[in-house]
Sequence to fold (405 residues):
Amino acid sequence: MTAIVDSATFRSRLETLERLLWKDGCAGIVEPPRPAEIVDRVLELSDLYTVERDLIASLPLRRGHLSARVLYFLCADAPKVHLVLDELRSRRAGPHPAPRRVLDLGAGVGATAAGLLLSLAPGTGPIEIIGIDRDGAALQAWRTVVDRCAEIAGIEVAARALEADLAADASRSAFGGADLAVAQAVLNETLDGGTAPRVAPPIAACIAGIAGSMETILIEPALRIATRPLHGLRDDMVARGIIRVLAPCLHEGPCPMLTTPRDWCHEVRHWPPTPRVAEIQSLTRRRDDRVRFSFVATSPRRGESDAAAAPGASAATAEAADRRGAHAAARIVSDALASKGKVERWLCCADGVLRRVRLLDRERTESNAAIARARRGALLTIEGLPPGGRVDPSVRVAPLLAAGR
Fold:
């Protein structure tokens, strides 16, 4: 994606969408309540999608849930898509055309579609976007949201809503022939239960079929119970030769987070919420000015040229590392773990190894301080890192790509 607007423009567009949704209730589909009235529904849905996940399929949506999804969760979750698109843009080696046909999997009320369409530069298009969901009421709102986003962004969009179940209807022809598929929280809502949840086999087969034929972005909540199955699905598709990994990984080896039961890789990005979202969050106290999510972006693996490509890294990333003469490239996958006299970070390295590195305060220099300063999610090049992981003054650390926010 090259035609991606900057984050300030995206935020301004999202605020415009939020004002419109609260003004007329998504063209009369929902009734805009006062923020205080929507809090209980937001809390109920938050619990359903986290600690009471098993009830999602069986519990009828209560009155007000659709309003909560349209008036709160939509603008709270749309930035995740923008942040992923922005990272993909920064990691591309060269121009990349905008998608012409997009599948919005598990489309809901339009959070994913809004994140995509409000990120695109004016004049982009025409784009056909197909929203696929089993909830007809949600798709009605989705269609209105797509139309509003197209108008706000100044892009030409043809929208089509398809009421279908991803697992049961995976063979439908409408699921193919696209350039891009985007899904948000689809895995979280369909996990097989148990103490070690996994992606339900029908959903896994559907996603694998789609990812094998088009670029695919999978975004999940930053929860261990949802993210580890995402890691497992990534590993399975890589092992079967279906995909290349575009981001966040720098490698296509097995995800090192899965070697222990406690670890998972997720993003934490600073993103001030839109005004109405901020107002509701001040009442629920469930979120703050950080956006948390996990994601995997992939492209189909086709032919010998893909097999020979640098695994998991874009050409731009690899070329930049080569120019620096770097011994290793790594992604920061933890916040700074500060204790007396030192800072520690976890790095997921280009060789597929998860490494814990430490920088003593007395050994911090301008050439290695990026280990402490860089934000979670940043890509670094590191020269001279010893096996023990101690970043002494001889180690040189430089940003390769900064984290999105």
Summary: The longest strand covers residues 290-300. The two ends are 18 Å apart (CA to CA).
